[in-house]
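LAB NOTEBOOK - FOLDING QUEUE
OPERATOR: T.R.
BATCH SIZE: 2
PURPOSE: Compare the predicted structure-token outputs for two unrelated chains run back to back under identical settings.
PRIORITY: normal
REVIEWER: second-year student, initials M.K.

ITEM 1
FIELD SEQUENCE / FIELD STRUCTURE:
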Amino acid sequence: MPAAAQHRRTRNTRLARALAAACTGAAVLALPLIGATAASAATTAAPAVGTTPAGYPDNLDGWIRESLAIMAEKKIPGTYNGIYRNIIRESSGNPAAINLWDSNAAKGIPSKGLLQVIDPTFTTYHVAGTSFDIYDPVANITAACNYAAHRYGSIDNVFSAY
């Protein structure tokens, strides 16, 4: 396109765009502050987290802490961080997780629960005093940690699928 036919922006147009952008940015920054002031006036209670029969919060943190208490009684080694790291890798914290595609699943024994334990391993390493349900978070964690202790010394020594 010839130079004479190109549209030229004038100084006023550039200045107007710069001011519009600056005002829009200021509005975007101010809105959360205005909203925060109005929201702080409302007092709504957060939904209560249930508890396990042992009195721990019925969430990932509580399940790990309850498992650690049982593990301490049974002298099964492991730490919060080691358990948490493996749970996040294996199931992303979903106690109902099931793997229907790996080699175990192909043999008809899919990995299940927070730490993706297969039924024979769960049965062999089940810890007395926990549920016999492989999907029970505390039973799953405790059995998996018992297995890891026998096989690797501790769940803390597990850094990949086990």
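ITEM 2
FIELD SEQUENCE / FIELD STRUCTURE:
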Amino acid sequence: MPNCDTVRRRRRSERQKKEKKNVEKCGATASIADVSRTVFTNKDDSRARSKSGQTQAQCTPVPLPALGTQRIIQGNGTTVGTVIALQCPAKHTLVGRQLMCVMDTNSTHWVGGTYCKPLSPFEDYGFHVAVLASIVSLAVIFFMSVAFITCCLLDCIKEDERKNHQR
């Protein structure tokens, strides 16, 4: 009977094989490690060739970000015109917009830059304060409404008693 480590290694190997097949299908030039944090959203299946059949210029592959997931918006990940965006995990904020592979006179390079920055405790703390203030406001409004209804009911009861005494 295989132990837990053997089962984990076998599952990881199977998952990596599936990811490699997906990469080959998409025509991307990413390694298996890249695929786990790179999402392909483009519908363009160009294989880095122009309509004339010549190979298009390409940028160097973008290294994986320390935090977040790369999302290929346009292109295949390295061709000129490729646009890559970054999605940040919870409790992080995106700095920058997106990367784009562009062609200069004789070379290609990436323009733009993005990274995920952890939220400071104060930025996250502000949300907690807002929620707490909302709850306190809700409680105050609720108790004031109950007090108003109680006063109205008491006035109605006193009015009824006064009418009964006058008869």
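REVIEWER COMMENT (ITEM 2): Residues 151 and 157 are 10 Å apart (CA to CA).
FOLLOW-UP: none requested
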